[in-house]
Amino acid sequence: MAKYMGPVCKLCRREGEKLFLKGSRCFSPKCAFEKRGYAPGEHGRGGQTRSERESDYARQLRSKQKARRLYGILERQFRRYFGVALRTRGMTGLNLLRTLELRLDNVVYRLGMAENRMQARQLVNHGHFYVNGHRANIPSMLLRAGDVVTVHEGSRSLTYFKELPELAEKRNCALWLDRDVRSLSGRVLRLPERSEIEGSLNEQAIVEYYSR
Questions:
Q1: Are 110 and 101 spatial neighbours (Cβ–Cβ below 8 Å)?
Q2: Would you report the helix, strand and coil content of the chain in percent, each value rounded to 5?
């Protein structure tokens, strides 16, 4: 599956805020956004501020791009998720965000089993997780309420997973998930509420963008 291979710090700079795509590094002085908080490119530094020059279309586009980059999804797949959300009963914007949250790589990240979504995606790709007792290596796999995620038995002897219980204890777990760090497992309890999803995302602007 295609994925973004460029520098992720540039994505934060383009959106004008930290997306925490590198985990703990984003909290350290090494964070590129702390050194160069302006947008990349020759027009990034100086000139008008974004709020002074941003049109409705630009606002909608930036909202869509921010969500894509936060979850590490390319345009074609993101548009497909929007189509699914559009056909699902309820508010389209909330349906879209819930779909993104229920991706296997995001659930692994939300359980605290990975430092960031990029690492979670890599761990899933390498086949380190089971879903309901079956090996799962597709990061975009969508989970449902009741699904159980566990670390593969053969992976528990690896240094990363031996240290994971202690690391996971220090990381937050989403309220719509249940986590057992000692058994290296987690369960999807229910669909996430809007207040439990990234608050800076503007799902209404995303809906407006695709409804043009």
A1: yes
A2: 45, 10, 45
Evaluated on CA atoms 100, 195, 87, 82, the torsion sign reads negative
CATH of the domain at 25: 1.10.1050.10
Burial 105-117 (b: 16+ CB within 10 A, else e): bbbbbbbbbbbbb
Site of tokens 């540039």: 10
Element containing residue 185 per DSSP (H, E)? strand 185-188
pTM exceeding 0.70: yes
Residue 1 lies in a domain: no
Q: Is 135 helix (H, G, I), strand (E, B) or coil?
A: strand
Q: 80 and 24, same structural domain?
A: yes
With respect to residue 2, please indicate whether it lies within any of the assigned structural domains.
Answer: no
Taking 70 as the pLDDT cut, the residues of the chain under it are: 1-53
Taking alpha carbons only, the member of 31, 41, 102, 51 closest to residue 73 is 102
Is there a contact between 181 and 168 (Cβ–Cβ < 8 Å)? yes
Closest CA to 66 of 196, 202, 197: 202
